[in-house]
Specification:
single chain; about 220 residues; mainly alpha; 3-stranded mixed beta sheet; about 10% strand; globular
Amino acid sequence: LAAVSGGADSVCLLLLLHTLREELGFSLCAVHVEHGIRGEESLRDVRFVEEICKTYGIPCRICHCRAAEYASEKKLTLEEAARELRYRLFRETAEEFGANKTAVAHNQNDCAETMLFHLARGSGLKGLCGIQPVRGQVIRPLLCVSRQEIERYLTEKGQAFCVDRTNQDVLYTRNKIRHQVLPLLTQINENAVLHMNQAAGVVAEAAELVSRLSAQAAKKY
């Protein structure tokens, strides 16, 4: 099951999975979650995803929810509420289609942003692991590539994608990191995002080792 928002990352994910499905021997379906936040722009994204899935013959399920109402009810931020609803609908749709993996389109930049977000708020080893490529049934095939590479790939293929205007709003913490902090770090070193992802991998290995040794010590003593 490919989670497709219509943005550059998820469109790239969908096209790559479609290209690889026969070679790797899997069937492909898609899900799009419309959060009830952006009005007509959100419905435009729905139509785009429906059309691209139709073009490639990929079964697609469109899910509608009301993230703002859910956020108010559960006392969550809008971002937290949208994420909770989204992943719940991913699980339900995967079960409906009989899919045993759900692919989401996080990339190297997302991992770097997550590391910085956790570091700024206060974090131990676990938070500095960034985003992991596999977590249960959720897989992230694009974690090995940057956002720049994704956009270049789509340009070369002449493939359009949707642009979510809320992703430009720096009132959201993640957008502030994306548009203001990471660009400054890449001025210091153009490979900053790559190096942060490499560090996340090292930290993840260290966290796993500490966890395993701690469990062994607890059992022994």
